């Protein structure tokens, strides 16, 4: 068995590399076209600075240490908010999924709150908690809460009832039923929730930092805009794109490690 | 005086309540299965075979009558009543050996040894680390059998366990089951729709009829093992099961009209 799987793993790795390269074709082509168009003076240097000039801005920000400082505080806010909201979503999703009583008590309220657009409650958060860290982290936490809540709930409820009969015959205790049956069966949904939740955390971070901050990538963008430093704005935008993508790739990696037992269509 | 593996079914009646009306599914089922006996239940689809097996397993507690296993009334499902379903019902996130161990830890040397000997028994060497999706239907069913047998059940209940498999795999698994039975002498109750299977494996064949489900005939299979599926004695018994089944099916149809 082991011998048979080894070449397959190597093949998979090669496929992964190929996929990464395929994914890079479009962005690279765009960048090159952009650079050429800028060099030829076809587009405004003020609104669309050439990639080379953006790179230079990036280098300057990096050299002054400013960039790392902004990135650090942004990532810290996103992670803290995600940790609070995400773990609450996971735990409450589990509780609601496992018990009808809890579902009846909590789910209607949560579903109602879920439909309120985050942008609508941002002013309230600022009124209540001010412009400081607390309002930002809480906003991110609220955003990160719902995807994990909804998907964990869904995952728990999608456990194959037939396997519960097996658990009864094997005399699983309630705790074992949860640990050995419900959690693994819900894992695909939980991981999907995790991905969406991280994405939401990142999105809410942007909202929170654009609303008012004195540090962070969002602040960097806002500040550069007021001074018409379009290159720096681009640095901020690219940072959001790349870190967001990295977080997403991390969860995908987690999925491929934890869900290798699944046989789904993979394209 | 009671003996491990003895199964007594006394006057079992069962109805399902559906949309306010009641469906009488089992009527006056009586059976006495001796320890180590291999019995088969055969009958038309919908006559209540699965329902009866679930009652014996303790998975369904809403019925009239009594079921005793090893002298004690059956009140709930448990390890002493191993159950093999038509679908393997393995945990898809566990490998073959983890499925056999299920809630027991493979790090425990005693468990490790038991699991290894089960893997040997059901001939799955080389596939210990495979996930259910990587196993064929026959292999998965063998993992399920190993999972049940590891718990040393007093009775093994099998609900059309080989029904979804191709003829070749089915024959192979029937022989494997006989081998296991010869070694462990576990009481076996097999539901099947395959007459050959019933005659090949069992000591006794119960033929059920529908509407409501009753045991219409019982046929003793007094053939020594190993049995030849083509011998005249086998064919004769096969014909009598077939006849009994045919009779019970016609009466069932009469009842439906
Ligand atoms: N949970 C249930 N609720 C209502 N009716 C059921 C249920 N399970 C089975 N039945 C009915 O009981 C009868 C016997 O079913 P079953 O025991 O599965 O038959 P068999 O296994 O012999 O094919 C069928 O008519 C079926 O529709
Ligand atoms: Mg059935």
Automatic annotation (TrEMBL), chain A:
Cited InterPro entries: MetI-like (IPR000515), MetI-like_sf (IPR035906)
Source domain of life: Bacteria
Keywords from the named record: Cell membrane, Membrane, Transmembrane, Transmembrane helix, Transport
Main location: membrane
Domain ABC transmembrane type-1: 71-251
Transmembrane segments: 73-98, 110-131, 137-160, 181-208, 228-247
GO BP annotations, alphabetical order: alkanesulfonate transmembrane transport
Family statement: Belongs to the binding-protein-dependent transport system permease family.
PANTHER family noted in UniProt: ALIPHATIC SULFONATES TRANSPORT PERMEASE PROTEIN SSUC-RELATED (PTHR30151:SF38), ALKANE SULFONATE ABC TRANSPORTER-RELATED, MEMBRANE SUBUNIT (PTHR30151)
Protein name: ABC transporter permease
Organism of origin: Paenibacillus pinisoli
């Amino acid at each position: 068995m082991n011998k048979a799987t080894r070449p397959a793993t190597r093949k998979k790795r090669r496929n992964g590399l190929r996929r990464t390269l395929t994914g890079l074709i479009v962005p690279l082509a765009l960048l090159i076209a952009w650079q050429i168009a800028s060099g030829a003076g076809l587009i405004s240097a003020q609104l669309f600075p050439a990639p080379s000039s953006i790179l230079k801005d990036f280098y300057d920000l990096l050299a002054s240490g400013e960039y790392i400082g902004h990135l650090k505080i942004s990532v810290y806010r996103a992670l803290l908010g995600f940790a609070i909201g995400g773990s609450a979503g996971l735990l409450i999703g589990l509780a609601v999924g496992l018990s009808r009583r809890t579902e009846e008590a909590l789910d209607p309220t949560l579903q109602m709150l879920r439909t309120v657009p985050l942008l609508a409650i941002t002013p309230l958060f600022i009124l209540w908690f001010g412009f400081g860290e607390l309002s930002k982290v809480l906003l991110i936490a609220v955003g990160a809460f719902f995807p994990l809540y909804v998907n964990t709930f869904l995952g728990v409820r999608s456990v194959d009832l037939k396997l519960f009969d097996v658990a009864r015959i094997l005399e699983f205790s309630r705790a074992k039923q949860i640990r050995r049956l419900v959690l693994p069966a819900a894992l695909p949904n939980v991981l999907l929730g995790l991905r969406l939740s991280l994405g939401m955390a990142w999105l809410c971070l942007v909202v929170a930092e654009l609303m008012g901050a004195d540090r962070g990538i969002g602040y960097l963008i806002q500040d550069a805009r007021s001074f018409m430093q379009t290159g720096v704005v681009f640095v901020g935008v690219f940072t959001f794109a790349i870190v967001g993508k990295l977080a997403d790739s991390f969860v995908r990696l987690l999925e491929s490690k934890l869900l290798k037992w699944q046989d789904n269509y993979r394209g | 005086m009671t003996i491990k593996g003895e199964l007594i079914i006394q006057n079992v009646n069962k109805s399902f309540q559906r949309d306010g009306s009641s469906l009488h599914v089992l009527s006056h089922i009586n059976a006495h299965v001796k320890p180590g006996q291999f019995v088969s239940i055969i009958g038309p689809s919908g006559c209540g075979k699965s329902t009866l097996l679930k009652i014996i397993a303790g998975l369904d507690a809403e019925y009239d009558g009594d079921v005793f296993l090893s002298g004690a009334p059956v009140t709930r499902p448990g390890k002493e009543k191993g159950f093999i379903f038509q679908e393997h019902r393995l945990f898809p996130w566990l490998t073959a050996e983890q499925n056999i161990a299920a809630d027991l830890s493979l790090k425990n040397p005693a468990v490790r040894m038991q699991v290894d000997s089960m893997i040997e028994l059901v001939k799955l060497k080389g596939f210990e680390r495979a996930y259910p999706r990587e196993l064929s239907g026959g292999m998965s069913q063998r993992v399920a059998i190993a999972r049940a047998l590891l718990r040393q059940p007093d009775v093994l209940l099998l609900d059309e366990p080989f029904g979804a498999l191709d003829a070749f795999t089915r024959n192979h698994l029937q022989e494997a089951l006989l081998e296991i039975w010869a070694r462990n002498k576990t009481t076996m109750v097999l539901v099947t729709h395959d007459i050959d299977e019933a005659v090949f494996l069992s000591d006794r064949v119960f033929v059920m009829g529908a509407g409501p489900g009753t045991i219409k005939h019982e046929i003793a299979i007094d053939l020594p093992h190993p049995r030849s599926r083509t011998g005249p004695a086998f064919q004769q018994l096969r014909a009598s099961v077939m006849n009994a089944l045919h009779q019970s099916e016609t009466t069932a149809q009469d009842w439906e009209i």
